[in-house]
């Protein structure tokens, strides 16, 4: 996806890890690593229950778009993108990928 945030993420990723580019879980790991310190700051406590409460419903502006923690399940939610592989390392997104 060619959003300014995603392009910046890929550039930083390649600078740190080489020219290969991010894998499928790179953005997820990056986003999840931001959720915890944000929740810790919001909770102002190291109590796990308080932190869990701060995480529930939390959102983060990830490189590929907003991601959040579902309030009912406490599961990480990311908008799936469906694409068609059209060559080595090339994918064309199908349909609209915007909410």
The chain-level structural class is alpha+beta
Rounded mean pLDDT is 81
The DSSP helix count reads: 3
Question: How many strands, which pairing sense, and closed or not: the largest β-sheet?
Answer: 3 strands, antiparallel
- Proportion of helical residues: 40-55%
- List how many beta strands DSSP finds: 5
Structure in words:
By secondary structure, the chain is of the alpha+beta class. The protein is elongated. It has a three-stranded antiparallel β-sheet with strand order 1-2-3, covered by helices on one side. It has a two-stranded antiparallel ribbon with strand order 4-5. The chain has helices at residues 4-17, 26-43, 48-55; strands at 59-62, 65-69, 76-77, 83-87, 90-93.
How are the SSEs placed, and which strands pair?
Elements: H1 4-17, H2 26-43, H3 48-55, E1 59-62, E2 65-69, E3 76-77, E4 83-87, E5 90-93
Antiparallel strand pairs: 1-2, 2-3, 4-5
Helix pairs in contact: 2-3
Compact summary:
The protein is an alpha+beta fold and 99 residues long. It has three helices and five strands.
